[in-house]
Amino acid sequence: MPSRPGRAPVSPRHLRVLFAFENELPSRQADAEVFTTTARYLAGHVAQARMHLPAASRAAASAAAALTGMAVVRAWAPVRPAALRHLLCGLTIVLRREFRHADLVYTRNLWVARMSILAGQRVVFDHYRPWGDQIPPLRRWIYRLFCRERFLAVICHSDYTRRAYLALGVPEDRLHCIRNGFEPERLPEPMELAAAKQRIEVPARRRTVVYTGRLNHKKGLELVVEAARLLPEVLFILVGSTGHGSIEALAADVANVRIVPWQPDDRLAWFMNAADILLIPPSRHPLATYGSTVLPLKLYLYMASGRPILAGDTPDIREVLTHGRNAVLCEPDRPAALAAAVEALLADEALGGRLAARAGEESLGLTWEARAGRIAALMAERMQAAPVSGGSWSGRQTRSWLLQSWRWLLHLVRRRSWVLPPTAT
């Protein structure tokens, strides 16, 4: 990558970064956790870090500052309605003194990125969704935005998303797969399986399959409940209920499915320690139907937990987990296949131990601190690079753009959903 002539190398320690988040904090949403945790760890690698976000009051801003570990700049935007909040977060950030004094804006919002570029600021964009595939009418606009000179980098959480933008014609040097991570302190000292089961009131000899995360129809949990019906001797523990939804209703008459409310980190560790198997529902639907889950965040915490992982053999999961090396992967969307995989893994404790040990070794490079270090080095490198606009938009891409936009419109009318899933492309 060419450097700017006559300039000394840029160090991350010299950078002033304005992080821009468009939603109120605190939040239980995974995207909020990813962005704020990344920002908090990145703040330790740069000269100055501030967070621009909407807050309903000074007290809310103070709470957000405590959560992120940095000074908060209150956005000139109301918390509600959401559409107006997003619009004004982008329109008014450019008026702030902190915006003018920053070396770059770090955001997950395309509108904020666009307004920052128009105001002459540099931008790093960090998001897990392949927006051009999910909302095809935006493709040409996204392509032009990502190819601007001051657009430094797109941080993708998966190669699945990176390849989607690469196919759009965005220059390869703008696209970087830097995976999410976990915080080792969220995992206390390992507890013996029997003792952990006793703590959550499960008999020591009862075999357990544990899922942690939101309980809703977008996670493939219907499949898990159906598999539980086939394995009445195995206890399936689903942790993360926030009310009486469709999954809770489906599991109501299944004696070996235990629904557990959302847990704080210390108690969540009890359930993970009590798992014979940690489960990521082996379903294509989160990725292919809803497009809302690409490499679920829980994966990295699972890898460090010391318990064997069972997941689906899907494109995003295969980027990190390999069947027989650090996990068991089964055919997606088949309850019988999931039940058979559970039985096989429970029957071979030596295999489970080997898989868990290998996953634990590989998790050492997947912490939030490691992610922040990689991003800080990338930001410094991109700041030093000679500004070049580029990319290639062909007639074939125009035809694909128009075709997919038409399919997206039909999907919007029929399904009332703004996101076009991969199965519809």
From TrEMBL:
This protein's name: Glycosyltransferase family 4 protein
Gene3D superfamilies per UniProt: Glycogen Phosphorylase B
GO MF annotations in UniProt: glycosyltransferase activity
Record-linked PANTHER family: GLYCOSYLTRANSFERASE
Phylogenetic classification of the source organism: Bacteria, Pseudomonadati, Pseudomonadota, Alphaproteobacteria, Acetobacterales
This protein's UniProt keywords: Transferase
InterPro entries: Glyco_trans_4-like_N (IPR028098)
Occurrences of domain Glycosyltransferase subfamily 4-like N-terminal (ranges): 39-186
Any Pfam family matching the protein: Glyco_trans_1_4
Presence of keyword Membrane: no
Domain of life of the source: Bacteria
